[in-house]
TrEMBL record:
Residues 1-19 have a biased composition (Polar residues). The lineage of its organism: Bacteria, Bacillati, Cyanobacteriota, Cyanophyceae, Oscillatoriophycideae. InterPro entries: Cro/C1-type_HTH, Lambda_DNA-bd_dom_sf, TransReg_Diox_bact_type. This is Helix-turn-helix domain-containing protein. SMART domains: HTH_XRE (SM00530). Keywords: DNA-binding. PROSITE patterns: HTH_CROC1. Pfam families: HTH_3. Residues 1-56 are annotated as: Disordered. Residues 487-535 form the HTH cro/C1-type domain.
Length: 538
């Protein structure tokens, strides 16, 4: 019959040795086993061992927080909102000054994820790639920054991450909107986005660390992803039959050469580099994944504030700066000249503040500079619900309301003017990270201060002991007379041989030996020479 060639024909006779066929191809049969078959959605397959999970306590972990990581996060979240420059070769690049222009960091983009040296993208191709950057890719970037702190030499060692770990970190294991293959394909593309960035650093002298430069390198160097597919039937030659299904992947990533200078414990100890780290919480990652679509401005601010509040925890932040981070400089500029755009921006700003407050960020306005009519009302029950229904009681209510101070009456209305918006732009806010991050940072600060105090105490005790030893030695040497036995003990304590002591004192070796054995008395002149020789050899 026509069309029967595409069906699976299985001989159902017991004891037969014939094999089933798919489209005319023999499918090998596995030997029957008395062991019960393993149940599950996919057949088992081996995965490479992965790096330890970031959040064993389900809350926080360390992450690299240097300036390169911060700016890389800004690029992934703000994309084309940043000021991209053009090199002579037509290569767009983003440059951020360091130490008031004494140094700088530059970023380029590349499509060569597995080629060295990578080629820099030019013109429209580069701009198209920048436009594709997804805010959620910043979550992958932060995860990489956290895994990098688990390694001793992250510029040489790789960390290994599976799709299972990434789904758990981001809360995607609870997402039922996408099927498994859609989720894996999308997640794999997101994981590659931070690896499209190239970085160059010209770093100025800061404190005890001298100036240095880092040649252009990958921000994150990713190996070819290891893809895991569901087992399928094979023909007699071992060729797969049918379409393979992706069921997982494993990534191997390491830091670029920048980590030798910015994530190097050995160089920090020798004051030749830095090792800067902050705190990443799993709750922050999941918050970003939940708000990025409806509230992209809040997502951009969260990632920016994660670094800013760690660098300057006690400094107020200017509203205009925060708005430019959240919405871009162009929208802020348009709002200054257009009342329509101003209303839109103010509305977005209030919603953004409300989202951050709901996600656990502490934000306090400065009453002297921040106009409170632009502060969001988190709890907004209608004030009209308190008006009595009885006409006489309602009249008394309104009469009493009229006696209240201006600005507190229900009938008062504060008009928002352009001057008020300008005041808003110059307003100041004090911002703190969510509680779990603040608590971990405070614990680190407390431990660091305790270690520094112990180190200073130990050094002071050591100096005191050395001073006492030196004083005792000088007092002993300044005695009116030395015996031969005392000379011998002092010589040994100083680590001197008889020959060396004789040379330092300008005496014959035999004379020193006879003095130590008591066979020759010590004259005043000899005493003086021995004192000088022993005192000068500390």
């Amino acid at each position: 019959m026509p069309g029967t060639n595409n069906k699976i024909n299985i001989n159902t006779q017991l004891g037969t040795s014939e094999q089933p066929e798919i489209a005319g191809k023999a499918v090998p049969q596995k030997e029957r086993s008395s062991q019960p078959q393993r149940r599950g959605r996919y057949r088992s397959f081996s995965r490479p061992p992965t790096s330890p999970n970031l959040f064993p306590d389900g809350q926080t972990n360390f992450m690299a927080s240097n300036r390169l990581i911060w700016e890389g996060c800004n690029i992934l979240t703000q994309g084309q909102n940043l000021c991209w420059l053009n090199a002579e070769q037509g290569q767009p690049y983003y440059e951020s000054p360091v130490a008031k222009g004494q140094g700088y960091i530059s970023f380029w983009v590349t499509d060569d994820l597995h080629t060295k040296p990578p080629a820099v993208l030019e013109g429209e191709a580069a701009l198209a790639l920048i436009e594709q950057f997804d805010i959620r890719a910043a979550c992958l970037h932060l995860i990489y920054a956290a895994h990098a702190t688990q390694l001793d030499r992250p510029w040489e060692q790789q960390f290994v991450i599976s799709n299972v770990q990434l789904e758990r970190y981001l809360g995607l294991n609870y997402n039922k909107k996408l099927n498994k293959q859609q989720k894996l394909t999308w997640l794999l593309e997101l994981a590659k986005q931070p690896c499209h960035l190239l970085v160059y650093a010209s770093w100025p002298e800061k404190g005890a660390v001298g100036a240095f430069s880092v040649s252009r390198t990958y921000l994150w160097e990713i190996a070819e992803p290891i893809l895991h597919y569901q087992d399928c039937f094979s023909d007699r030659q071992g060729n797969p039959i049918g379409e393979k299904t992706l069921v997982g992947f494993t990534l191997k990533i390491r830091c670029g050469n920048w980590a030798q200078y910015f994530l190097n414990k050995e160089k920090r100890a020798s004051r030749a580099g830095y090792y800067e780290y902050g705190i990443l919480s799993q709750g922050l990652l999941r918050d970003l994944m939940s708000i990025w679509y409806d509230h992209p401005g809040a997502a951009r601010l969260m990632t920016w504030l994660l670094f800013k509040t760690k660098v300057n925890p006690g400094s107020p932040l200017i509203v205009e700066t925060l708005m430019k981070v959240a919405f871009g400089e162009e929208l802020v500029t348009d709002a200054i000249t257009s009342s329509k755009e101003r209303k839109k921006l103010v509305r977005r700003w209030e919603i953004t503040l409300r989202v951050l407050l709901e996600k656990g960020w502490s934000i306090q306005p400065d009453s002297e500079t921040y106009p409170l009519q632009y502060w969001p009302e988190l709890v907004n029950p209608s004030p009209l619900t308190s008006i009595p229904n009885d006409p006489e009681e309602a009249a008394s209510f309104w009469a009493l309301d009229a006696t209240e101070e201006e600005g507190t009456r229900l009938t008062d209305f504060t008009k928002r003017t352009p001057a008020g918006f300008e005041q808003l732009l110059g307003g100041r806010l004090w911002v703190r990270s969510p509680a779990e991050i603040v608590q971990r940072l405070n614990g680190i600060t407390k431990q660091r201060k305790s270690n520094q105090k112990k180190l200073l105490t130990d050094e002071a005790h050591k100096r005191k002991q050395q001073s006492n030893t030196k004083l005792q030695s000088q007092q002993f040497l300044n005695c009116s007379l030395l015996t031969g036995e005392e000379v011998r003990k002092l010589r040994i304590a100083k680590g001197l041989s008889v020959t060396k002591l004789a040379e330092l004192a300008g005496l014959a070796k035999s004379m020193v030996s006879m003095i130590e054995t008591g066979k020759r008395p010590i004259t005043a002149q000899t005493q003086k020479r021995l004192n000088q020789a022993l005192e000068n050899n500390h």
